[in-house]
Amino acid sequence: MPVIRALFRLIQSSLRVKVALSIVLPLVAILGVFTGVEYVRHREATLANLSFVAAQTAQVVENSLQHEMLSHNLQGVQYLLDGVGQDKKIRAIYLLNTEGRIVFAPEKQNLGEQLDNRDATCQPCHRLPVAERPSSVVVTLPDGQRIFRSMDPLENRPECHQCHAADERLTGVLLTDIWVAPFETQLKSDLLENLGWWAGTILVTVGVVNFVTGRLVIRRLEQVARTLTRFGRGQRDLRLPDEGPDEIGQVTAAFNEMGLRLHAEETQTASLTRDLRHLASERRDLLQRLITAQEEERRRVARDLHDGLGQDLAGLAFGLEAVERLGGNPLEPLRAHLRQLRAQIAETTNRVYDMIFALRPSTLDDLGLAPALRAHAERALKDTGVKFELEASGLTRRLPPEIETALFRAFQEALHNVARHAQASHVRLSLAAPDGHFEGEIVDDGCGFDVDAIQPNEHSPRGLGLLGMQERVTQCGGTLVIYSRPGAGTRLSVHVPLPEAGND
E strands along 101-205, which residues? Predict the structure, then answer.
């Protein structure tokens, strides 16, 4: 079985073997049929010749016997049969009387023996009617050997009447057995010789055809295969030589045309790719500058609000409180009005500080990412009933400012979505920075959503917040992945590579 499998793999992988088989198999079939037919015809012709030889031999012997018998030279009859019996191809030659008894035989063997026509070797003829019995037949002996038996009746001629009754049709029968084996050996020898010529013809034909097809077809196809293999591995500048207008030449021309077109398209694609990368690089730089400028403007506005308007409102509140304390009982309506103004000023002050925190929390610059997110979560989720949990034990050092800002804005948007849309009762935020990269995850047990359905387009702003989060994380060279489905909550995972500590 391994040999058969190996041969089958060889046939599948080799075009030369397939071509050889396409020649050998038809030749084997055609020559096999022709050889079989020729062998059968040759065998039949040999048996016919054998029958003719046997008939001629019998005729010669009969004529000689007639001459000796008419001369009453019985000794001459015996000498004649002795001479014929010396031929090794003749198994037996008997002169039988009309009763089937042997009266003459070479070396007087089996004289007087009565042949029984019920014997198996006699049945091929004697089981047939007299008119249908053949004069010769091939008989198989009990030991398996085959003989060619001919029965030549001796007619009762007028010259024989002096010894035989005139009313007898026959005077006897000449039985001749000739060995078939020598002739079959010759047939087998001829068959083997034919098979040898047949095999030689096939080998020579296969060799010549392989040589011719190898030069005219296989070599060219192998060149095409090698070129296609190298072309498929990226060598796009390969071309095949033009070798004529035949089918392989047409394939070659089509390949060369395809190669030229593909090379031109790849050149154009490479140029477009370079332009696209340049535009993407410019876009990233522009976006980074925009984000940086935005954060700087937020920081400036927050500082101005904190240092200017915030302090002015605080001073105004303190002044109103002082006026309220200086007044007497007759001025009770005025004090009530002042208390109302002070409450409005306090509410306005809180609103201003909320605006300051939204613009740029000072906690982020002063204390870092975790405290800023905790402070923002307390403000954003204060009136929603959502329980907030922060795990930042894995964050042991400050991150670069631009990364802290981007991460803060991403998680700020996530907490804003939880407060507005998630309908959650619990949200957990974990921060860590192991092995030179930042890992953050925020998980809620809310209603969830179909991520694929939240895509911004020109008709709907849905998903712009998620897109902004993605852009900020991408600017840091990181990735943001959102896992959610309706009814199963939402998990947002952030991964950002960190620069080495010396480059912070």
Answer: 102-104, 136-140, 146-155, 170-179
Residues 160, 166: Cα–Cα separation, whole Å: 8
Provide the 3-class DSSP secondary structure of residue 216.
Answer: helix
Sheet holding 437-444, edge to edge: 387-394, 426-432, 437-444, 490-497, 479-484
Residue carrying structure tokens 């002063």:
366
CA 373 to chain centre: 55
Cα maximum dimension of the chain: 196
Q: Over 60: is that where the pLDDT of 264 sits?
A: yes
Residue 308 has pLDDT above 70, yes or no: no
Cβ contact 56:157 at 8 Å: no
Contact 436, 497 (CB under 8 A): yes
| 243, burial (CB in 10 Å: exposed 0-12, middle 13-18, buried 19+) | middle
Given this model, what pLDDT does residue 481 score?
92
Half-sphere exposure of residue 258, counting CA atoms within 13 Å on the CB side? 11
- Token output for 118: 């019920």
Structure tokens at 174: 């000449």
Q: Give the three-class secondary structure for 194.
A: helix
Condensed to tens digits (0 to 9), the pLDDT of residues 212-242 reads 777 777 777 777 778 878 877 777 777 777 7
pTM exceeds cut of 0.85: no
Q: At what angle do helices 2-13 and 15-70 cross, to 10 degrees?
A: 120
d(CA 38, CA 353): 114
> Hey, is 286 helix, strand or coil?
helix
Q: Report whether 284 contacts 475 (CB < 8 A).
A: yes
Per residue in 131-162, pLDDT (tens digit) is 676 667 777 888 888 887 777 777 777 666 66
Q: 69-82: b or e for each residue (b if 16 or more CB lie within 10 Å)?
A: beeeeeeebbebbe
